[in-house]
Fold each of these.
Amino acid sequence: SQQGEEDPQALSIQEGENATMNCSYKTSINNLQWYRQNSGRGLVHLILIRSNEREKHSGRLRVTLDTSKKSSSLLITASRAADTASYFCATPPDSSYKLIFGSGTRLLVRP
Amino acid sequence: GAVVSQHPSWVICKSGTSVKIECRSLDFQATTMFWYRQFPKQSLMLMATSNEGSKATYEQGVEKDKFLINHASLTLSTLTVTSAHPEDSSFYICSAMGQGNEQFFGPGTRLTVL
């Protein structure tokens, strides 16, 4: 079963604009992770934010976590055409090591 | 480091045959690996947790007799889809858990059952 939902399901923006994706989850978590998947490929780990963190940065990526609302957001600044991909949040439910993925956001960055 | 490979990258088979997919951690040992299935334009669904030297743990709704998992060594887990049917056609992705409990994903295997 999926942990939660992501919105929007699809997002189309112009190169240079910022892209924001949101993720909601259902259970308590130790951390939340964001992954990227190019079409028909495996997953690339982008960033992990722990439950006691509120915000984390990595290059052009900014992730926030609100445990009271059980939600997270991923912001990609100054987007590039190469950022076109699907983005998934994933959480390990309870104290498990397995990952439950959100429904994903398909991002299209137009050159 | 932390590279995970899958073999084959794609496979086409006839309905009723069995297909084996391998997942290897190339430069690290992984006592735990995971198998996911992904249908077109959908998210990854966890199928099972593969534990080296013991039986796999299957998620609810996943038939363990249909999806056989063997984790015989610290670097190899295999998923065998038995008596495959067209509805089993999907993208199968594995991941291997590293020492820091992070997961490293393989490139996936696309299975098409005719």
Amino acid sequence: NAGVTQTPKFRILKIGQSMTLQCTQDMNHNYMYWYRQDPGMGLKLIYYSVGAGITDKGEVPNGYNVSRSTTEDFPLRLELAAPSQTSVYFCASAGASGTEAFFGQGTRLTVV
Amino acid sequence: GQQLNQSPQSMFIQEGEDVSMNCTSSSIFNTWLWYKQDPGEGPVLLIALYKAGELTSNGRLTAQFGITRKDSFLNISASIPSDVGIYFCAGQQGGSEKLVFGKGMKLTVNP
């Protein structure tokens, strides 16, 4: 059972480039989340989805976009990468009330 | 946005010692969770608490949902080297689909 799978694991982007962070889950969870983790700052919610076709902003959505066309996939798009987006990004999914979230292994992104 | 205050921020202990950490909020939460993150990995759920006053154990870990519903505690007994990592508290408020996370506590265990 794969759980939550994120790709890529590492990426270096130049300022102004764009990329998509992929996230897929095989647990048939309705809830999916994108967090970013900066050193000493915990996890901050970027976007979340309560089901296919439904997305909503979290605490730090600026500079990012998401889509949820299927239950399994929840990609995160960076359109114009900036150094402030250097971080570790985690995707998570949860069933039922969205409480017990399962996390992927993360994508470490550096923008130079 | 809503924040959880997690303390201490870090701890250095000897193998075999117990360690306690807590998480507080100015608001009421309906659910409290504790996660552990190993280096280079995503957080893994340790314990979930759903009822005020609830005390739940998972091996050497014990967590409690505070009576006021504004705090939670995690205790690790007889620490071992593999307990090293960052421990996060998280809470969910009533009617919310989102979890709020604390900033984490970095635990170092000296053999």
